[in-house]
Amino acid sequence: MPLDLSGPVLDHRSPQQTTPLLRQLTPALDQRREALWVLTPPEWLVDTPDRRVPAEVRDRVAVIRHDGPRRNHRFLMWADDQLFRIEVKVHGSITFTLAMCVLLRLAQSSNILAIAAYTFPSPYLVWTPYLRALVERGHQVTMVSSVGVLDDIEGVRHIRLPQLDKTINGIMNAEISSDFLTNKWIESALGSAFLYNITYAILSDKDFQQFLTNKSEHVDLIVLEPLHTYALFSLSEYYDAPLVGLAPFGPHWITEYLLGNVSPSVYEPVSPMGYSHGTDFWSKWQNWWHITEEWLLEWIMFWPGQVELSKKFFGHPPPNGHGAFSLILINHHFSMGHVRSNVPNIIEVAGLHLSRPAAPLDAALQRFLDEAEFGVIYFSMGLEILSKWLPMNLQKPLLRVFAQLKQRVVWKYELETLPNKSDNIFISQTVPQRQLLAHPNVKLFITHGGLLGIIESICYGVPMLGLPVYFDQFKNMERMRRAGIAENLDTNSITEEQLTETIHKILEEPRYTDKAKQMSSHLADQPMSPLDSAVWWTDYVLRHKGAPHMRLDQEKTRYSTNGQDYLLMAKFSHLTT
């Protein structure tokens, strides 16, 4: 486990003085994420150190015993019900510093089961640093995931499920009707079938079944992506362990529902189809109806199949989801153009994936960027949207417009050649996106609106031009437009004139870059890193056995719903007209 040098040292010569101080200091130390080191005389620690340490602070306190001669100091550290002996040969006051350097962090090791149901590259960029940090805290982590995409994480036990790869490859290679992007019911039918197959692939896998039926396996906490895979929620009851959600795609009404919020925001749909971004009363009424329809789809399309799977593998239906999670970590931050009325157990961790070291630029790309006299435009549709899927009515205008620009263009393109490519375009199958956006010559990011790319663009203060295609991309880019750091175009009707005009507008009007740099400053100004916050709150749930005190009181909030609010408003409007 990593070293912790942050804890203060108390040098008190009797347990009568120290014990009350421990009781007083521990809550404050919990808030500051510190360990407490106590130097004691020989008579305090003899045989059973736990007799002198208050029960409620044992997870947070180390007791060090000083019982050696001046030049040969011996220390005993109490942690996790064990004693550790450390010998330090030094002079006087230096003893404390050197002893602290060899003491271990006080983190109670827990067994954590993490299941990544969505086998796409982007979510794994969030999963990886989070799981690595949990391992570094001393936890034993078992990760259930696909065979491909996710690399092995040192210290994590991996259970690889080949059927997950087959399921996602089937979706990626399928010929999907265009109605999928324009009809919410067709979208939900396809989505529910996909998630049924994903959930079945996990619960039926022989290696995962062997893990479940092994009575020696103990699970203290389960981490899931909090969306639609309700049968997996039954694992909480199976292991009598709390659920923590990791939401790489950001918030919507389902995440609030899973935390027990009976009055979720009408501004957070799952699907963008038919949703209004207006702020007047009728737009909000339309959005309430939009989310009510999504609610119906959830219980008509998604829920029945998940009930079937839960009964098959656990013998009973899953929990209904309402209040099922103790905590959800969402890939969002209030500085990103949208302040939310969060319940206490929603923790914002936007930028968690930025804790990983950024990949360097190769020599050719570095030179291309350095020599760009008029700046660089970066164009990428993310990790999941392949260039071969881009319609010709989008590719051709892009090529012609890029050829007319004085700026250079870096295009993330998965094929080796791009027909009709002009000399100012650099194509690459794998672009180190963070390092590229951090380059001072990059002036504009043309993006599909994926949340991770948006966060990276904000981090480095680069304005955006959005070409959203599906799901959350539309609302992501609409927020950026309203925040003043982006403009958006419709990929179905884009013209060369629109594209040229919008690119020049963003490049030539300083307000876009100024707003982007301001938002970057706001996002960076946090009391602790998103990764540290995610790990701290995960440990908090473990320390407090699911932290039920963080949840809304269902009895007190039972009748407070957005639906009733708007019905009352409509009735009042009718009576006064």
Question: What would your notes on this structure say?
Answer:
By secondary structure, this protein is α/β, with parallel strands linked by helices. It folds into 3 domains: 9-102, no CATH class; 111-333 and 532-562, Glycogen Phosphorylase B (Rossmann fold, 3-Layer(aba) Sandwich), CATH 3.40.50.2000; 358-524, Glycogen Phosphorylase B (Rossmann fold, 3-Layer(aba) Sandwich). Helices cover 41% and strands 15% of the residues. It is built from 19 helices and 18 strands. It has helices spanning 15-32, 94-102, 121-136, 162-173, 184-204, 206-213, 234-239, 253-258, 281-314, 363-370, 392-404, 433-438, 451-459, 473-483, 496-508, 510-524, 530-543, 554-557, 562-575, and strands at 9-11, 36-40, 61-65, 73-79, 82-88, 111-115, 140-145, 156-160, 221-224, 243-247, 327-330, 346-348, 376-380, 408-412, 425-428, 442-447, 464-466, 486-488. The strands form 4 sheets. A 7-stranded parallel sheet has the order 8-7-6-9-10-11-12, with helices on one face. The chain has a 6-stranded parallel sheet with strand order 15-14-13-16-17-18, with helices on both faces. Strands 1-2-3 form a 3-stranded parallel sheet. Strand 1 (9-11), helix 1 (15-32) and strand 2 (36-40) form a beta-alpha-beta unit. The termini are far apart.
